[in-house]
């Protein structure tokens, strides 16, 4: 009788969404010194794992680094999370990274992810994989972040995000991209801040937000959580 109960419980768990029995596996590439990615992510990762069915591995680096430790974990990852700036990784490591998105697996990019690697790889990653078009940034004008696609699952329960980010100039997005948030600095100057795209059948997400203060903002953290669920093709949680 007891065995039947155990079998029945296993069948129920199997029938439920993957989140009931599995975890989203995330590999993070950190290396944006200017925006203190390591400091922000060392607080964000434990919070993420404690509150959601997620498990993270991380390759810690800095701008210009040519080799990352622990990159082999990317092979088991459902989601690649990139918050890095102008790394100069060797071909062997870039081949591992490219294999992830070329297999149609999920990617989440934060702030300097639009120029995370060397120029040739950035051209592919920013323009095609992420569907963006990084063209530098404006000055220190205050940025008002506007939710544009309010019904998109990635913006579920995401309120206003106050930020001190300098607004990035994101030229025309790829035709396959869906704009989620715009940044307005006045005088008709609006540029895309957050969007999603598809590449090789996989989902990708990018936001140019990501200064340290953003990572302690509940709405920004909610945005990233939603992005991870959505790109992994899991149901985005309905509760905050």
CATH topology: Rossmann fold
- Sum up the overall morphology in one term: globular
Number of strands: 10
Structural class: alpha/beta
Number of domains: 1
> How far is the first residue's CA from the last residue's CA?
39 Å
Q: How would you sum up the major sheet?
A: 8 strands, mixed
Strand content: 25-35%
CATH homologous superfamily designation: Class I glutamine amidotransferase (GATase) domain
| H/E element sequence | HEHEEHEHEEEEEEH
How large is the radius of gyration? 18 Å
| Spans of at least 5 consecutive residues with low confidence | 1-20
**Helical content class:** 25-40%
Number of helices: 5
How is the largest sheet built, in terms of strand order?
2-1-3-4-10-9-8-6
CATH architecture group name: 3-Layer(aba) Sandwich
Overall pLDDT level: 88
Write a structural description.
With 240 residues, the protein is of the alpha/beta class. It has one domain (17-231): Rossmann fold (3-Layer(aba) Sandwich). The protein is built from five helices and ten strands; from the N terminus they run H-E-H-E-E-H-E-H-E-E-E-E-E-E-H. The strands form two sheets. The protein has an eight-stranded mixed sheet with strand order 2-1-3-4-10-9-8-6, sandwiched between helices. The chain has a two-stranded antiparallel sheet with strand order 5-7. A hairpin with a 5-residue loop joins strand 8 and strand 9. It starts with a helix and ends in a 9-residue tail after the last helix. Mean pLDDT is 88; it is low at 1-20.
């Amino acid at each position: 009788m007891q065995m039947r109960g155990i079998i029945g419980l296993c069948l129920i768990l199997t029938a439920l969404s993957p989140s009931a029995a599995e975890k989203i596996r995330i590999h993070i590439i950190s290396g944006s010194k200017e925006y203190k990615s390591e400091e922000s992510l060392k607080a964000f990762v434990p919070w993420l794992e404690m509150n959601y069915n997620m498990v993270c591995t991380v390759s810690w680096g800095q701008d210009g680094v040519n080799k990352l430790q622990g990159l082999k974990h990317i092979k088991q990852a459902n989601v690649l999370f990139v918050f890095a700036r102008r790394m100069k990784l060797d071909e062997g490591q870039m081949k591992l990274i490219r294999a992830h998105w070329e297999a149609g697996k999920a990617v989440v990019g934060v702030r300097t992810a639009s120029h995370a690697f060397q120029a040739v790889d950035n051209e592919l990653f920013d323009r095609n994989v992420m569907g963006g078009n990084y063209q530098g940034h404006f000055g220190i004008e205050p940025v008002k972040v506007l939710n544009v696609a309010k019904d998109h699952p990635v913006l579920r329960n995401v309120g206003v995000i106050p930020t001190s980010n300098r607004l990035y100039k994101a030229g025309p997005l790829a035709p396959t991209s869906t704009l989620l948030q715009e940044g307005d600095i006045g005088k008709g100057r609006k540029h895309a801040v957050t969007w999603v795209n598809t590449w090789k059948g996989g989902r990708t997400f990018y936001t140019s937000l990501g200064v340290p203060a953003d990572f302690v903002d509940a709405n920004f953290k909610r945005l990233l959580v939603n992005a991870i669920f959505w790109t992994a093709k899991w149901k985005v949680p309905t509760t905050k």
